[in-house]
Structure formats: structure tokens, C-alpha cells
# Entry
Amino acid sequence: DFHSALSHAPIMSMGKRIREARLALNLTQNELARRLNVDQSTVSGWESDETRRPARDLMPKVALHLRRTPE
# Structure
């Protein structure tokens, strides 16, 4: 049924959502990093889910540059 299908649906990680939004805008990790005043390795870490999501105070800026609403 519908509810069991939802419970088995994969949930997209924050990193994957950041990556997909960045790619949809044709931005490189380096370009996004420069706009956010962070290192490219920071963006890479977010996208690979190796590091925590962006800091809470940085989320509005990430959302703005990726044309998304902050979560």
C-alpha cells in the first residue's frame, strides 16, 4: 500500500540534495565554495556526507545560492 511504499522509499541526504541543487545550477564545488566563503573541501564534505551539514548560521546563505528554502 501507499504507506508501506513511503516507508521503504529512500530518503535523500542533505549532502545529496546540496549536490543535486548545485549541479542543477551548473555550479562547480569551487564556485559554490567561493560564493559561501568556505573551502571547496567543505562543500565536498557536505556532499559526500562525510562532514556535518552546513552550520545553522550558514544554511540561509546556502539556500539562497542554491535557490532553495532552508530546512
